[in-house]
Model the fold of this input.
Amino acid sequence: MGFGRNPHLVKAQAAEQKAAAARDDAARELAWREAARFWERASERETDAARKQQYADQAARARARADGAGDPADDPAADDRDAPGSRLLN
Done:
């Protein structure tokens, strides 16, 4: 991590990936809330107004996903979870 980089950006993206890979609703909600916090922190740290607004929008979107109001089409892993053969059948 060099000077001038926003470490919260990477953490927010990792939390979103964690939410997408979560297997149960509680873990998914917690990961989305964590992502929202990191997006807010990234927004607070940003100096560029356009990126600051983009990060704030991402925080609001992540919070909506945690509340269950998010658009399932935004979740790239949703298709993988519901695909036949994605789980072991015994």
Notes: The helical segments are 7-21, 25-45, 49-66, 78-82. The CA atoms of residues 20 and 77 lie 5 Å apart. Residues 76-86 have pLDDT under 50 and may be disordered. Residues 25-45 form the longest helix (21 residues).
